Protein: Methylmalonyl Co-A mutase-associated GTPase MeaB
Amino acid sequence: MPRPDVPDLVERARRGEARAVARLISLVENGVEAGAGDAGTADLRAVAAALAPHTGRAHVVGLTGPPGVGKSTSTSVLVGALRAQGRRVGVLAVDPSSPFSGGALLGDRVRMGEHATDEGVFIRSMATRGHLGGLAWATPQALRVLDAAGCDVVLVETVGVGQSEVEVVALADTTVVLLAPGMGDGVQAAKAGILEIADVFVVNKADRDGAAQTVRDLRHMMSLDGGAGGWERPVVPTVAARGEGVDDLVAALDAHRDWMDAVGERRRRRIARAESEIQAITLERVRSRIGDLSGGSGLTGLAERVVAGELDPYGAADELAGTVSGR
Amino acid sequence: MPRPDVPDLVERARRGEARAVARLISLVENGVEAGAGDAGTADLRAVAAALAPHTGRAHVVGLTGPPGVGKSTSTSVLVGALRAQGRRVGVLAVDPSSPFSGGALLGDRVRMGEHATDEGVFIRSMATRGHLGGLAWATPQALRVLDAAGCDVVLVETVGVGQSEVEVVALADTTVVLLAPGMGDGVQAAKAGILEIADVFVVNKADRDGAAQTVRDLRHMMSLDGGAGGWERPVVPTVAARGEGVDDLVAALDAHRDWMDAVGERRRRRIARAESEIQAITLERVRSRIGDLSGGSGLTGLAERVVAGELDPYGAADELAGTVSGR
Structure:
């Protein structure tokens, strides 16, 4: 396969060409999977470098919540509401439990059927391909692709379940936690630490018994919370299947974005996320350099000396750190 | 508190002084918990360096299995059988779910009552003190303390439950998996990946209904397994509460140790473990150096440039790796 022309792809993605967007995300995914020294790694780095000047504009919104709460439906109607206002929208459906990745999943087409032919919407499924680490690494870069492609809002929806939800949602500027009445969700969510990460609550299926009570309970909790940092977290009732309350949700998302920008919170969150990302890449690089060493100065040689009692593991780590850093 | 005289403590531990052994393990635990630059870290390093020449002799045996299978009782009778042969024994009871650590736990005294006053036995409970990582780091060093103290065999028993069992047992030369009849253990153990890690199986409570069947099933599985690497994993029926079968278990442990030494497997396992340990210490050191940096060349400065679009995260990691390694 010929090496991709990354600057050209980025230019075309910036003009909104869906195929270029899809290709860049694939390059990111493949690069994260590739070993050091592989051409895929070079492509990933080229994509990251070419994207950098064109990112930082999109409002990244994460949606999470227990299974069955209506995340997919909510994402779909949210896309519709944002498109009705003329905004460009990206959707990353992240499924830590699925081995399937790519933009052509049947599930996506069916689920997002009404948006599939809309040129103002980019939809992409991402999956683990065997290790969750890969997903955690690829997702921030995929977000940057959609950002550079001119998306005003990027929705990150976690499919599947697990604590990975919390990690993935940590990529967002604004995190929406969806709950539904009568699912014992309050308790479950509290256990999973999911209440703390919410900037906006949605009580979906608000036409069901108990919905009003769930909304009241949450609003009471949030008022006690006292609006930590100046933001009292809103609770928005919706019936996503009928599109009810979705404009209120859009308004809540915009209000949170405006509040963050006014007090500098969005910048603070983005810096903290970039710190985590840079540190993870650096440590991975050190790990990879360690793996490349061989002979007596390599890991196995040092381990042999530890087993022989000639060296302790802390002394061995000193030698290894010196070798890896070239000192 | 005055700084400890580590070489003196190691000398006293080698002569079998229980208080010196306990103090060294405490220094290890405190050192692992301490931040970089703390005196505790220096003590930990001094202990590791002083121990190195005196380690590598003990046979490290890990015992694991589902809750209720009789791990504590089996450990206790195993201590008795080894002591009856005049061997010195160390016991590390590792409880990833408990916040309590130290040698004076009431539970230990009661449980190991008959051995508590035996000068040929060292018993120590280790717990997480809040993070499992700490336990994973401290345990190999604690094993080295008991090794240097002249223990012929060190038993590592995992108390509590969870996947951490597998990690902790990965410290052992020989891993014993305990099962019991009529607990659906076979399936559970297979799920947890616990069958693969076994070098020796014990079917405890062998006087119960179904025990003979469990033993037959396991032996059949092991014969199909074909003795991977030349070791056909034995299945030893025991009734630990009455001491039955414990001499067979001791014989199986010795046979596994002799087989490992004959084919070089013990050395291979120890080198692999030392590799993991050295790599973990090195990466932690890099992480700590990153945390020490500040200003424009530090993590926050780089993250600010990434957020501003002046730099991509991979370029930032290049700069950070260069700074950390002093190049």
Notes: The radius of gyration of chain A is 22 Å.
